[in-house]
Amino acid sequence: MKKTILGALIALLVLALVFSPACISKATEPETTEPAREGFYRNTTYGFSISYPPEWIKEEIGQGGPLVIIRNPSNSGVVQVFIEYLPETMTPAEYAANAIESLEQGLADFETLSEGTINLGGELGYEQIFTGTESNTPLKAKLVSLVRGSQAFAIMAASPKAIFDPQKDAFDKIIYSFRLEEPQPFDVSRQDSLILFDVGPITLDPALMRDTTSASYVQEIFSGLVTLDKELQVVPDIAEKWEISKDGKDYTFYLRRDVKFHNGRKVTANDFKYALERACDPATESKTAANYLGDIVGVKEKLFGKANEISGVKVINDYTLQITIDTPKAYFLAKLVHPAAFVVDRDNVKLGEEWWRKPNGTGPFKLKEWKKDELLVLERNALYHGELPRVQNVVFRLWGGIPMIMYETGEIDITYVSASNIERVLDPANPLNKDLVTIPEFSLWYIGFNVTKPPFDDARVRQAFCHVVDKDKIIKLVLKDMVKRADGILPPGMPGYNEGIKGLDFDPEKAKELIRQSKYRSVANLPSITLTAAGRGEVSPVNEAIIDMWRQNLGVEAEVRQIEPETYPYVLKGEKDEIFEIGWVADYPDPQNFLDVLFHSSSEDNAGEYSNPELDALLESAREEMDTATRLSMYQEIEQMLVDDAACLPLFFSVNYILVKPYVKGFVPAPMPIPWLKYISIKPHE
Question: Could you tell me where in the chain the CATH 3.90.76.10 domains are found?
Fold first, then answer.
């Protein structure tokens, strides 16, 4: 169990008693949206209420500390309400036992005076009365623990020991007034909402977004000329139709006349011109504009500050936009589904560097509220130009606990299944099995080599490191057969996928010979090697297994250096060590999005800085090839070259195992991120 909440409880308890109310930091926003009532506090975010004497003082704090502190006028007694998310299902008594253990460690002279089960407004709780000393202050306190699903509530009343008993009746009235209620954050009804778990976006700026988590929000709040439907076909969005010139270079888009930003302002071709040029402005510092907009004539000049406008983007009239690309490209329309091509409101951007915290988009949903690390609520956009979303609200509980527990206790409606739970979910006798949806994903998880640093500047060393990793063993023992082994780079189902590609098989003896043939001649001559990974301290089981295989099969040691997962995709290219882990999910269903974007020498997403002039030439030829069969054949040749040269160590293609509540209708089992929330409807349920 985490002890952060209970540890803070002790520290804040003393702070609340010893110092004035001004010493306690307040939340930047109130936890409740309803008007304050004297002597009564209701928290709609977490679903509880509590009453207190009108003359007492209330302080709202927020998640991570006490949600609310209530103190008497003399500052000699305090009641605090905490919430903690449980790592496993617990009873109130079990949670209370952990609380006592934590309190014993934090307080000197600790002594439990009494404990037992109580009834609190129809909810069974557990009550403990104890004494202890902190910072030379003798304390006496009553702690009541309640559990609802994955949430544990702790209500503590405390004061200096000598004056606790005279205040006992007042404390009891406050504690026993505590009531659990249905959470209705920002007045959002549970019955008309889809409830999900998430960690929240890094950014909502379409030009800066580089991670799949942020993309899932950006695609719902913003939109572009075209989009992907449920079958992954490019279909009209803000552009109702388009024409392509005979030479395949000029795209004329005819915009719908009924499209409005969330604030009601109409969208015109000038808005798209602004958005595209902003994405390519060097001051924006977009890391995606070059890859996804670079086919447009004049984009490179704009990116390098040599032009004020993009010459290949022309406004014909308010509702007609012409885009000219350098050469015909079969996949160009598909690239426009990437957020870098989405329209943004110029006036919205003028609000400042983090304008996207109050985005004025055009997508099917608009941002209703966002409380960092707590809640994010999307609301149906009544002005949406397409078919209106069926669900009124989508509530994301950010960092709100263990998703699997939250799903089983009915707190969220959809969740991914982890390896630790897959066996019981796959059991047909388990009730969860009927909720399971399995979706192969257009993604690749791989180990990248930094070819600019020894020893991976030598292809034979890269090949050796590939040959000593037993992927089948990792998939079976660590990943419990939840993924598909990757011999190549293109995932199954992706156009151009080659089932017969020849990978670098598990062959330790061949690996040792390759090291002898390399310019390093011996493992002893290899420099130190560090694996850059996303994480917060604990090395992932997959990385542990790979490092152990390098050690056991090749005699090579590797250390791990971690970067915060949220910032990892944004800083990896500049901060990578000799090797690094990385995952890639398709932005559009075309092999160019993997082979060219990840391995062309000039690509921003070529994190390992792999460079091969022959490969670059083939990639550039494939860009211009308009015959589908020929183009896919070229990509298969390119993919085999990358595998043979060990441009990376492909590990596996992901498969998503997702639980969906029976009352959630319209779930889209797409193999890549698309706008999907608009298809969801919620049937009546308990």
Answer: 223-343
Q: Give ranges for CATH 3.40.1000.10 in the chain.
A: 4-183
Buried b (16+ CB within 10 A) or exposed e, 529-544: bbbbbbbeeeeeebbe
Q: Is the peptide bond before 440 cis (omega within 30 degrees of 0)?
A: no
Per-residue pLDDT, 63: 57
Return residue ranges of the chain for CATH 3.10.105.10. Answer: 443-653
Q: How far is Cα 326 from Cα 251, in angstroms, rounded to an integer?
A: 12
Question: Domain 189-221+365-435+660-686 in CATH: superfamily?
Answer: Periplasmic binding protein-like II (3.40.190.10)
| CATH number for the domain whose boundaries are 443-653 | 3.10.105.10
Residue 591 in this model has a pLDDT that exceeds 60: yes
Other Cβ atoms within 10 Å of 108 Cβ, number? 11
According to the model, what pLDDT value does residue 35 have? 53
Per-residue pLDDT tens digits for 214-223:
999 999 999 9
Band of pLDDT at residue 134, cut at 50, 70 and 90 = confident
d(CA 460, CA 515): 7
Q: Provide CATH 3.40.190.10 ranges for the chain.
A: 189-221+365-435+660-686
What is the value of pTM for the model shown? 0.90
pLDDT in tens, 282-325: 999 999 999 999 999 999 999 999 999 999 999 999 999 999 99
Decide if pLDDT at 442 tops 80. yes
Domain 4-183 has CATH 3.40.1000.10: yes
Nearest in space to 156 (alpha carbons), one of 197, 99, 232: 99
Contacts of 130 (CB under 8 A, 6+ apart): 100, 103, 107, 110, 111, 112, 113, 140, 141, 143
pLDDT of 25 above 70: no
Rounded-to-10 torsion of CA 666, 670, 674, 675: 0
Name the packing angle between helices 592-599 and 628-644 (round to 10°): 40
| CA–CA dist 122, 120 (Å, integer) | 5
Read off the pLDDT of residues 458-489 as tens digits, 9 standing for 90 and up.
999 999 999 999 999 999 999 999 999 999 99
CB atoms within 10 A of CB 74: 9
What token pair was written down for 579?
């090797």
Is the Cβ–Cβ distance between 657 and 422 less than 8 Å? yes
Range in 63-72, 285-294, 432-441, 532-541 with the lowest mean pLDDT: 63-72
- Please provide the DSSP assignment of 160-209 as one string: EGGGTGGGHHHHHHHHHT-EE----GGG--GGGEEEEEE---S---TTT-
Asked whether the predicted pLDDT for residue 393 surpasses 80, the reply is yes
Largest interatomic CA distance in the chain: 90
Which DSSP letter does residue 7 get?
A: H
pLDDT tops 50 at residue 11: no
| Domain 223-343: CATH class, spelled out | alpha beta
